[in-house]
Specification:
The complex is a heterodimer of chains A (417) and B (112). With 417 residues, chain A is mainly α. In chain A, 68% of the residues lie in helices and 1% in strands. The longest helix of chain A has 33 residues. In chain B, helix 1 runs antiparallel to helix 2. Classes of the chains: A mainly alpha (417), B alpha+beta (112). Chain B: InterPro entries: N-reg_PII, N-reg_PII-like_a/b, N-reg_PII/ATP_PRibTrfase_C, N-reg_PII_CS, N-reg_PII_urydylation_site.
């Protein structure tokens, strides 16, 4: 019963007993979906684009734009069916959204709107993973990878956490996608970075960001969109949505403070690229807890999230020899693990389930983390090999890499003076 | 005739130019240059990675003066460009063999 209750907590969409449409909920979810849409081709695109070298800015932005377009297509064809169709291990029966009409409901909102909302999650997940592979992966390989990854990795993992699958659901609390989106994408990026190998210049020449200004602007747009991401995951316009909105804002702010405070201690400087990265780390950390943590919890979750992001990127990363170009694993994966663990620890009184046992909830969280890491790592590798095989290798040639992908692959430059 | 080359901090250019104008220096050539001396460069930080930038932006002023003016010019530059902190720059003085003003054909001291 407890497990059932927690499943409800993690998946508000199942909670609704009534099946009448609420125009208030629907209005909010239309807006929330639009918010989340902005995160990928604008927020993440500028955040990642600003961090990339000037010769690869357009290629990097193109991966966010491309991931969004491909993700949307794949989601309506088969992704939604796998994630939210009926079935235990994977869902079926809703290919091409069959059987869904404009009067079908998910809870109190039209199911078509739920399809759109969840589709924006699938798209941003694979766009996040692109950050690990940029500056050397073929654009064509990435586009095919994005489609296959959503089908084979993102949609099944979503089904287990939120879509009604029971065998692989461990009773994890993941309100808005801590393991489903962030850990999943971070692990996927890391695995592809390992397969691709390091960039030619990695560890040898200075790889400086194109524009810290764009990094901050992109992070701010992500922050904005994240209100839809987290508060929208309630799938209703109610008190829990308001709470998710507030704690999201608090944790992101504390992420900024956590990152630059540690940076100040270590380097005697508070950088803006660091502050923006800290905001994203705080947002990642609060995501799974956004429906259950209170403000006190959000302060600690965000602060540690920001500090941990810095520690991962500045220290732990050097211990692994993997060239995770834009640190997708360290900010979304490592901090995502922290957020998932913290979800079990920091629960507001009003969200506390009856007979709550933190120990057994932590076991549930770790089980879901473990499953996500193992499944995502193995299937991402398989999917990437397939995408590489189709495009005759997944990596661009040496000359293309050193000239930059913007001109050679896209025939454009980020700035024409 | 001597050539005076002074490498100074960019924000001191206006002060030095004004001080030189006061003692009667009528012309100079200025260029934006990069370099470093004993102070070495500075470092930039991006996401926990530290990059050392060797070359710092500087201004190089060049002017040619009569032998009698050299000492006054150099002491004026030293006074106007000094902050007392590392990286204030250097002055180089060298001989000039010949000067010709293109417009009039005047030479040497008349052409300074």
């Amino acid at each position: 019963m407890k497990r059932f209750y927690l499943a409800l907590l993690a998946l508000p969409t199942l909670v609704f007993a009534e099946d009448t449409l609420s125009s208030g909920d629907t209005a909010w979810m239309l807006v929330a979906t639009a918010f989340v849409m902005l995160m990928t081709p604008a927020g993440l695109a500028l955040f990642y684009g600003g961090l990339t070298r000037s010769k690869n800015v357009l290629n990097t932005i193109g991966m966010s734009l491309g991931a969004y377009a491909v993700g949307t297509l794949v989601w309506v064809i088969v992704g939604y069916s796998i994630a939210f169709g009926d079935g235990d291990i994977i869902g079926t029966g809703k290919v091409m959204l069959s059987g869904i009409t404009s009067s079908s409901l998910t809870g109190t909102i039209p199911e078509l709107l739920f399809v759109a909302f969840q589709g924006t999650f699938a798209a941003i997940a694979v766009a996040i993973a692109s950050g690990s592979m940029i500056e050397r992966v073929k654009f064509s390989t990435f586009m095919i990878f994005a489609a296959l990854w959503i089908v084979a990795v993102y949609a099944p993992v979503t089904h287990w956490a939120w879509g009604g699958g029971t065998t692989l659901n461990f009773g994890e609390m993941d309100f808005a996608g801590g393991t489903v989106v962030h850990l999943n994408a971070g692990v996927a990026g890391f695995v592809v970075a390992m397969i691709l190998g390091r960039r030619k210049d990695y560890g040898k020449a200075a790889i400086k960001p194109f524009s810290p200004v764009l990094v901050v602007l992109g992070a701010a747009l992500l922050w904005f969109g994240w209100f839809g991401f987290n508060a929208g995951s309630e799938v209703a316009a109610d008190g829990t949505a308001a709470s998710a909105f507030l704690v999201t804002n608090v944790a992101a702010s504390l992420g900024v403070i956590g990152w630059i405070a540690v940076e100040w201690l270590v380097y005697k400087k508070a950088t803006l690229v660091g502050g923006a990265s800290g905001a994203v780390a705080g947002l990642v950390a609060i995501t799974p807890a956004s429906g259950s943590a209170g403000v006190e919890g959000a302060i600690i979750i965000g602060l540690i999230g920001g500090a941990l992001g810095f520690y991962g990127v500045a220290k732990l990363k050097t211990m692994f020899k993997v060239d995770d170009s834009l640190d997708a694993f360290w900010i979304h994966g490592l901090v995502g693990i922290w957020g998932s663990v913290a979800t079990a620890i920091f629960i507001a009184d009003y969200a506390m389930p009856e007979n709550y046992n933190m120990g057994s909830q932590l076991v549930s969280q770790f089980s879901a983390i473990g499953l996500t890491i193992v499944y995502s790592a193995i299937v991402t590798a398989i999917v990437f090999f397939i995408a590489s095989a189709i495009t005759g290798g997944g990596r661009v040639d040496e000359e293309t890499e050193s000239r930059g992908l913007d001109e050679t692959v896209h025939g454009e430059k980020a700035i024409n003076l | 005739m001597k050539r005076v080359e002074a490498v100074i901090k960019p924000f001191k250019l206006e002060d030095v130019k004004d001080a030189l104008a006061e003692i009667g220096i009528t012309g100079m050539t200025v260029s934006e240059v990069k370099g470093y001396g004993r102070q070495k460069g500075h470092s930039e930080l991006y996401r926990g990675a530290e990059y050392v930038v060797d070359f710092l932006p500087k201004i190089k002023m060049e002017m040619v003066v009569t032998d009698e003016m050299v000492e006054q010019v150099t002491s004026t530059i030293v006074e106007a460009a000094r902050t007392g902190k590392i990286g204030d720059g250097k002055i180089f003085v060298s001989d000039i063999e010949q000067i010709i003003r293109i417009r009039t054909g005047e030479t040497d001291n008349e052409a300074v």
